[in-house]
Amino acid sequence: MITSAGVGSGLDIESLVSQLVAAEGQPQRLRLDRREARLQTTLSAMGTLKSELANFQNAVSGLSSLSAFQGTKASVGNTSLLTASATAEAATGTYSVEVQQLAQAQKLASKTFADSHTVISTGTLSFRFGTYDGDSNTFTANPDKSAQVVTIDAAHSSLSGIRDAVNGANIGVSASIVNDGAGDRLVFTSKDMGVANSLQITVGDGDGTDPADNVDDDGLSQLAYDPTAPGVGSGKNLTETVAAQDARLLVDGLTITRPTNTATGVIEGVTLNLKSAESGSPTTLTVASDGQAISKSVNSFVDSYNSLVESLNSLSSYNPETRERGALLGDASLRGIENRIRRLMGDAVAGLSGPYRALADIGITTQREGTLALEESKLQSAIETHPEAIARLFAVGGEASDPLVRFVEGTETTRAGEYEVNISQLATQGKYTGNATGSFPITIDADNDEFTLKVDGSELGTISLTHETYNNGSELAAALQSQINSNPKLSEAGGSVAVEFVSDHLEMTSSRYGSASSVEILSLDPSPTATTTQTLGLTVNSGNAGVDVAGTIGGQAAVGSGRFLTGSGGAEGVKLEVLGGAVGDRGSVAFSRGVAAQLNTYLEQISDSDGFLDNRIDGLNDRVADLGEQREVLDRRLVALEQRYRAQFTALDSLLGQLQTTSNFLSQQIAALPRRTSL
C-alpha cells in the first residue's frame, strides 16, 4: 500500500484518502455511539431498578411470616418472686400467681469418717431415680431414667475415691465431701430437682456374699439408702439432709407443680422463672401483645416502600425547566411494575374477613407522589383491638374455626379462600397389649429379664430389666418404660413409648401417630419363654399399628400422615394438624396471602434468573453486542472504500505523472526551436 505523497504528481494521496474515508464513516460511527450510549444508560437504570426492587423484596420477605407481627411480652408485679418471658404463641391475659415452694434436689449424707482417705470397701453402687411416697412407704422408679451402676474397685475404695468414681461416671448424681467439724461426710446430690428424682442406692458389697452384707452398716453398704427400709443397718444408712421437692405454685387458684424452678407449659407460650417462695402473697402476671413489635414491622414496610417509590420516581422523572429526564421515562417495563405493585398494595386481601382487609383499614394511605403515609392513631387502635388481624393483613396465614384443628402451612400454589373440613378418621398410636401378668410381687431375674422389641419399624435389640422385686403394676410399668426409652436406637429415631399397667396387664404405646406407629415384641427371654409370659404377660406379638388421620379439605379428599392432613385439588397445599375431637364436620379453615406475601411472590417472579427483569437486561445486552457487530461491518466497508480510493488516486497520480512528463517534453522541444534573429 502506498502511504507517501504521489510520486508522479506530488499529490498528498494519504491525506486525501484518510479524510475521505473519515468523512464517509463519521456519521455512521456517531449514530452507533449515540445508540450505545442510550442503551448503556438504560442498562444502568435497569440495574438500579433491579437493585431497588431486591432491597424492597428483602424487606417484604421478612414481613411475609406471621412471626414478624406476633410479638408478646410478659410482665410481673413482684419480680422478687418470679420473672416471665413469652413467645409469639402466648395467649394474652392477666393471671394471679402465688409461688408456694421452690423445687430442690435431694441430698444424702453418710455418717462421719475420720478423713477422706478412710477406706470403705469395694463393690458396686446402683443408683435409681424415682418418687418416694411416705404415706404408703413405696419407691416408684422414674420411667424416664434407667438405673445407673458405678463400680468401686480397690483404687477407688476410699471416701475420696468413691467420690471421684461417682463423679467420673456422669450418671446424674454428684458426690462431694463435707467436713462437719466432727469429720468428713460423703454427700450424694441428685443433679436434677423434683420429687421424681429422689435416690434409692443399693449396694453390692465386696466384703461378703451374704445378702445381709449389702444392707448392713459396714463396708460399702454404709452408703446404701432405701427410703422404704426401717433404718440404719437395714439399707437406710444415709441421712437425707435435703428432701427432693417440686416447685409448687397457684395460678388463678389452680395448684401447679413442676420439677424445676423454670416452669413451662403452665400458660401456653409463657416461661416462668421462679426466684423465691412466699405463700399467701400472690402477684400479677400480665401477658399482652407487644404493640411496639407490630408497629415496628408496619413502619418498616412503609419506609421500605417509600424508599422504592423515590427511586422509581427518579428513574422516570422529567424536569421541564432543565429538560433533564430520567433514564426510564416512558419505559413500559417500569410502568408495568409500578402499576402491579400499586394494585397489590391497594386491593383487599382475599380470604380475610372482618374490619381489617386492606392497608387503608389500619391507616396506610397513598399520597400524591405515590409514597405511603401512616396514620399512627388508626394503627394503634387496630393493634389494641385486633393485633392478629394486622399480621394476617401482611403475611401468609391460616386459621381454623375448630380449636382442635391447627393450621400448619400453605404452599405457593395454595389459593386464598375458606375451606370446609371434614374428618372421617382420627389418627391413632400403635399399641401393644399384653396378657395378664402374674400376681404381685413379681421378681425379675435371669429367667424373665429380657425381650427384643420393635418400635415404629426400628428394631431396638434386647431390652433388659433390672433384677428386682416389683410390688405393683405401676412400679413394673415405670421400670419397663425407663429401660425402653433409654435405648439409644429409639432415642436417635426421636421415638419413645409410654408403658402403663391397666387393670391386670401391661400396655405399651408409641408416642408417634399414624400408620408408621407400632410396638412389636419380636422374641422373649429364651430361658424359658413361658416364664416371661407367665410373670409379665408378654408374648411375641405385633400389636395394633396406628392409623393416619383421614378426611376432606374443601370437599376434596386429603392425604393423611399421622395427625397431619394435606389438601389436594382446589385445596392443594393446605396442611392441618388434627389434635383430637370427633369425626364429622369440623368447621372450616381460612387461608390468605397478605400484602407483603403477595409482593414477595411477585418480586421473586420478576427478579428470578429467568424472570422479566433479567430477560429485559439480556435483551439490552444483546442490542449492545449487535452494535459491536455493526461497527465491525462498518470497519470492513471503510477498509474496502479506502482501498478503492487509494487505487483510484494512485491511478490519477500515475496519469498526472505521465501528463507532467509530456508537458516537460513539449516544453523542452519548444525551447529547442531556433529563435528568429532580428535584422
Automatic annotation (TrEMBL):
Its predominant location is secreted
The UniProt entry, under InterPro entries, shows: FliD (IPR040026), FliD_C (IPR010809), FliD_N (IPR003481)
Pfam families per the record? FliD_C (PF07195), FliD_N (PF02465)
GO biological process terms held by the UniProt record? bacterial-type flagellum-dependent cell motility; cell adhesion
Protein's cellular compartments: Secreted; Bacterial flagellum
Instruction: Tell me which positions the record assigns to the signal sequence.
Output: none
Domain Flagellar hook-associated protein 2 N-terminal positions = 9-106
Q: Which residues form a coiled coil?
A: 617-644
Keyword annotations for this protein, in alphabetical order, are: Bacterial flagellum, Cell projection, Cilium, Coiled coil, Flagellum, Secreted
Keyword DNA-binding listed? The answer is: no
Which Gene Ontology cellular component annotation is one that this UniProt entry carries?
Answer: extracellular region
Q: Report whether NADP shows up as a keyword of the record.
A: no
Q: What range(s) does the Flagellar hook-associated protein 2 C-terminal domain occupy? A: 244-660
Protein purpose = Required for morphogenesis and for the elongation of the flagellar filament by facilitating polymerization of the flagellin monomers at the tip of growing filament. Forms a capping structure, which prevents flagellin subunits (transported through the central channel of the flagellum) from leaking out without polymerization at the distal end.
Family statement drawn from the similarity comment of this UniProt entry: Belongs to the FliD family.
Question: How would you summarize the oligomeric state and partners of this protein?
Answer: Homopentamer.
Protein name (database record): Flagellar hook-associated protein 2
Q: Which organism is it from?
A: Nitrosococcus halophilus (strain Nc4)
